[in-house]
Design a protein that fits this description.
heterodimer, A: mainly alpha, about 0% strand, B: about 240 residues, alpha/beta, Spore Coat Polysaccharide Biosynthesis Protein SpsA, Chain A, 8 helices, 7 strands, about 40% helix
Chain lengths: ~130, ~240
C-alpha cells in the first residue's frame, strides 16, 4: 500500500465539495425564503449542507473516521450519505402514510357533512 | 323493538346496475334504510342515485377505495344511531332476499358480525383456480389466527351490530378489507359467525380484483394481518 498512497481529500475534491455545499445551502435558504419548505424539512437539509461544508473545510474529520474503520475515505462518504438518504426516505414514507390517512379522514368528513347540509337545505325548502 | 338497520352500498362506477339493486332492496327489505356511498365515481352513479326515492347518498370527493368508502358508511351509521349495518355490493352479487336472514341471525345476540358465506353447505359457488388458491391460503392464515369458524373470509356480504359499527368507524383497512376485518374483530373481542347464502353472478361492472393484482393483494393482506396481530383495537369511548 506504500507505493500508491491512499490520499485523503485532494484539493480538487475539497473544492468540489465546498462548492456543492455552498450551492446546496444557498438553494435551501432560497426555498425557505420563498416559503416552499416547511421549516422542519429545511432544518434537515440545512444540517446536511452544514455537514458536507464541515467535511469540506475539515477533511480530517472523515479521514479519522476512515482510519478508525479501516476503510477508504470514499467509503465513509458513501456510507454516511447512504444512511442519511435512507433516513430521509424512511421519514418521508411515514409522513406520506400519515398524510394519506388524514386525507382519507378529511374526504369522509366532507362527504358526510355535505350530506347533512344537503338534507338540511331540503328540509328548509319543505318548510317554506 | 325492531332494530334500525342501514344497508351500506359502496359504489364505484356502478351507474349501470345501482338502480336495479336498490329497487330490489326496497322490495325485499322495505323497512331498512339504504345508504349509497359513491366512491368518487367517474360515471353517473351519483346522479342516478339522486333521482331515486328513499335512498341516502354520500358522495366522496375523490376515490378512496372500497375500504375508505365502507368506513364512510360505518361512520354514517354510528352518527345516525343505527343498530345494525349491512354491507351490500352495488353490482347485484349479494342477494337482497337474504339480507333478512343475516339480520335475524344477528338478532339472536350471540354474534356481533354475521357473514353471508358462499362456502357453507347449500351454495353452488365455485371460484376460479387462482382465486381459490389465494383464498384458501388466506383462509388458513386467518383460521390459524382467529381460531376457525369462518370459511368465506373474503365475503363482503355482512351484517354487524353497533359494537362493530363503532369499531369499524375507527379502524377499517384500505383495500381488499374483508379478510383483515376478521382479525380486527377478533382482536377487539367480537364474534363473527357465518350463514350460507347463494350469491348471484354480477349484473355489470367489473370485479375490483384483477388477476395480476391478486398476488399483490395476497401479500399485502397477509402483511396487514401479521401487523394487526401486534396492534390494539379499541372502540370509540362512550360507545357501548
Amino acid at each position: 500500500m506504500n507505493d500508491a498512497p491512499q490520499l485523503g481529500f485532494q484539493t480538487v475534491h475539497r473544492a468540489a465539495l465546498l462548492l456543492l455545499s455552498v450551492l446546496l445551502l444557498a438553494f435551501v435558504l432560497e426555498l425557505v425564503r420563498r416559503g416552499r419548505f416547511k421549516e422542519r424539512y429545511a432544518l434537515l437539509w440545512l444540517a446536511a449542507a452544514g455537514a458536507s461544508l464541515a467535511i469540506g473545510l475539515f477533511p480530517v474529520l472523515i479521514e479519522k473516521l476512515a482510519l478508525v474503520m479501516r476503510v477508504q475515505y470514499l467509503t465513509v462518504v458513501y456510507g454516511v450519505s447512504f444512511l442519511f438518504l435512507l433516513g430521509i426516505v424512511l421519514g418521508f414514507s411515514v409522513v406520506i402514510s400519515r398524510l394519506s390517512e388524514r386525507c382519507r379522514e378529511l374526504a369522509q368528513e366532507i362527504a358526510l357533512l355535505a350530506h347533512r347540509v344537503h338534507r338540511m337545505e331540503s328540509q328548509d325548502r319543505d318548510e317554506e | 323493538m325492531k332494530p334500525r338497520v342501514l344497508i351500506i352500498i359502496p359504489a364505484y362506477n356502478e351507474a349501470a346496475t345501482i338502480a336495479a339493486v336498490i329497487a330490489e332492496l326496497h322490495r325485499s327489505v322495505p323497512d331498512y334504510h339504504i345508504l349509497v356511498v359513491d366512491d368518487g365515481s367517474d360515471d353517473e352513479t351519483s346522479s342516478v342515485v339522486e333521482l331515486l326515492e328513499d335512498v341516502k347518498l354520500v358522495t366522496l370527493p375523490h376515490n378512496l377505495g372500497i375500504g375508505g368508502a365502507m368506513q364512510t358508511g360505518y361512520k354514517y351509521a354510528l352518527r345516525n344511531g343505527y343498530d345494525v349495518a349491512v354491507q351490500c355490493d352495488a353490482d347485484g352479487q349479494h342477494p337482497p332476499d337474504q339480507i333478512h336472514a343475516l339480520v335475524e341471525r344477528l338478532e339472536r345476540g350471540d354474534a356481533d358480525t354475521v357473514i353471508g358465506s358462499r362456502y357453507v353447505a347449500d351454495t353452488q359457488y365455485v371460484p376460479s383456480m387462482p382465486r381459490r388458491v389465494g383464498k384458501s391460503i388466506l383462509s388458513r392464515l386467518i383460521d390459524a389466527l382467529v381460531g376457525g369458524g369462518i370459511t368465506d373470509t373474503t365475503s363482503g356480504f355482512r351484517a354487524v351490530n353497533r359494537k362493530v359499527i363503532s369499531l369499524f368507524a375507527r379502524y377499517y383497512p384500505d383495500d381488499y378489507p374483508e379478510p383483515e376485518t376478521l382479525i380486527i374483530l377478533h382482536k377487539a373481542g367480537l364474534r363473527a359467525v357465518e350463514v350460507p347464502v347463494r350469491m348471484q353472478p354480477r349484473q355489470g361492472g367489473v370485479t375490483s380484483i384483477r388477476p395480476g393484482k391478486a398476488a399483490y393483494y395476497m401479500v399485502k393482506v397477509a402483511l396487514a394481518i401479521f401487523v394487526d396481530t401486534f396492534r390494539k383495537f379499541t372502540r370509540a369511548p362512550g360507545d357501548l
